[in-house]
Design brief:
Its EC number is 1.1.1.179. This is D-xylose 1-dehydrogenase (NADP(+), D-xylono-1,5-lactone-forming). It catalyses: D-xylose + NADP(+) = D-xylono-1,5-lactone + NADPH + H(+). The chain is an alpha/beta fold. The protein has 2 domains: 192 residues, NAD(P)-binding Rossmann-like Domain (Rossmann fold); 175 residues, Dihydrodipicolinate Reductase, domain 2. It is 29% helix and 23% strand. It contains 11 helices and 14 strands. The strands form 2 sheets. It has an 8-stranded mixed sheet, with helices on one face. Helix 4 packs parallel to helix 5 and helix 8 crosses helix 10. The longest helix is centred in the middle third of the chain and has 18 residues. It is globular, with a radius of gyration of 21 Å. The protein starts with a strand and ends in a 23-residue tail after the last helix. The mean pLDDT is 96. Bound molecules: NADPH dihydro-nicotinamide-adenine-dinucleotide phosphate (NDP) and ligand LJPVP2WV. The site of NADPH dihydro-nicotinamide-adenine-dinucleotide phosphate (NDP) has 27 residues, from helix 1.
């Protein structure tokens, strides 16, 4: 049977939208996907029509046969385009709430970049709105859809390492912020909800949640308590440049244990593993079970290798490495998932459910409260519409993507 075609509309023309578009337009058959395929039928830039035109010329034209792609100079025109099935929101997370409200208001399903919003109240408002309007809505946490992540979750559910006692996960990127990011960069700019918690810490939390919380049957999933946090401010902007979090997940195991611990960390100046490309590499995620351990090698947003070691020395250590088929960066799998969900009329993806997005946002709210980290009132607000602070697009520093 011919694959079903899903028509995407891209909201923004920045770094991540470019990467996502490139991945989406790689032939799905290269990754064994036969049921869906993707085209990009519209792109919008809030800075200029020129930027949207350039995007179409560089990333879309010539990559999807005869399918045409419109270029718009406003997000409003994009959400009004009837040739678009689903919108990918790739703006800074400070803007997700306003941008998603706009799309939902025009009855468009959404795949929205992480972090879903700035706070849990905004996330809940969007979820309620999507539910009310019967629209698909998903946080684009790409890593969850990697074959590697699926296998690791399955290994835990199969009991390969016994009961999970503790999980630690780190995403520290080893950059000197004063050299790497000017004060306007989204990584450190509070007006764009900059800082490591929402940008990088969310991956460490993703690993804790997908291995401890998500591997339980739905009715047994309980929000963790936040036992402790440490937060360091970036000297120029006050954004968090290092955050460490200790979580306690309530569980109920056959052996009578009632909690599983999670330790999540993220930082700009430290690095998860300076030896990452050598045979001295150390794992950035460690899932400690009572019968063994699963180690995932970083960067944890795009891991390609894991190892399982066993208490029982008769059992062989297992090492597994993954390829990125068709030369993809790794974002196509979440695109396939969103397309499939939308095609069958699902409102949410099981793998990144509304419940889990919300629990994670609540956890991050709690961490920020303890660290006394606030963003400007307009980006914390649930009011809609708000004209967020104007920027000068000529001063915008576009993110380059790391591998
Ligand atoms: N999943 C992943 O691997 C990654 C996810 N991300 C997430 O994607 C989002 C965007 O990041 P990224 O693409 O790196 O950022 P960029 O700065 O490269 O691009 C963001 C784009 O958003 C649009 N935009 C709208 N309003 C603003 C504003 N006030 N300031 C700046 N840009 C604005 C601009 O596009 P235009 O002018 O065309 O409207 C801009 O190019 C973030 O939420 C981030 O967390 C980022 C990197 C990797
Ligand atoms: O989501 C992300 O993943 C990759 C990182 O390089 C980037 O800063 C972050 O936003």
């Amino acid at each position: 049977m011919a694959p079903k075609v899903v028509r995407w509309g891209m909201m923004a023309t920045g770094g991540i939208v470019q990467t996502f578009t490139k991945d989406l337009l790689v032939d799905p058959k290269t990754r064994g996907v036969e049921d869906v395929c993707h085209v990009v039928t519209a792109v919008a830039s809030s800075s200029s029509k020129d930027s949207a035109d350039r995007f179409v010329a560089n990333f879309v034209e010539g990559k999807q046969g005869d399918t045409k792609c419109s270029a718009y100079a406003s997000y409003k025109e994009l959400v009004q385009d009837s040739n678009v099935d689903i919108i990918y929101v790739g703006t800074p997370h400070s803007h997700h709430y306003q941008n998603c409200r706009l799309a939902l208001e025009h009855n468009k399903p959404i795949l929205c970049e992480k972090a879903l919003t700035v706070n849990a109240e905004q996330a809940k408002t969007l979820i309620d709105e999507a539910r009310k309007r019967n629209l698909f809505f998903m946080e684009a946490v790409w890593t969850r859809y990697f074959p590697l992540s699926i296998e690791v979750r399955q290994a835990i559910q199969d009991g390969k390492i016994g009961e999970v006692i503790r999980v630690s996960a780190d995403l520290s990127i080893g950059e000197i912020p004063e050299d790497k990011f000017d004060e306007g960069h989204r990584m450190v700019n509070l007006d764009l909800a900059g800082g490591v918690l929402l940008d990088l810490g969310i991956y460490a939390l993703t690993w804790l949640f997908q291995t401890i919380y998500h591997t339980l049957p739905k009715e047994k999933r309980r929000a963790p308590t936040v036992l402790g946090t440490a937060m360091t401010s970036e000297p120029r902007t006050g954004a968090d440049e290092a955050t460490t979090i200790l979580l306690n997940f309530p569980v109920s195991t056959p052996s009578g244990r009632s909690s599983t611990h999670g330790v999540a960390s993220a930082a700009l100046r430290a690095h998860f593993d300076f030896e990452r490309d050598s045979d001295q590499a150390t794992p950035a995620v460690r899932i400690f079970g009572d019968q063994g351990e699963i180690q995932v090698f970083g960067p944890i947003y795009r891991p390609s290798r894991y190892r399982i070691t066993y208490r029982d020395k008769q059992k062989q250590t297992e090492d597994k490495t993954f390829e990125f088929p068709g030369g993809i960066h790794g974002m196509s799998w979440e695109g396939d998932e969103a397309a499939r969900c939308w095609l069958v009329g699902k409102l949410e993806s099981e793998t990144m459910s509304w419940d889990e997005s919300l629990v994670i946002m609540k956890t991050m709210d709690n961490v920020r409260k303890q660290g006394n980290l606030k963003y400007p009132d307009d980006i914390e607000s649930t009011e809609y519409p708000i004209d967020l602070k104007k920027r000068d697009p000529s001063k915008h520093v576009q993110t380059e993507n790391r591998d």
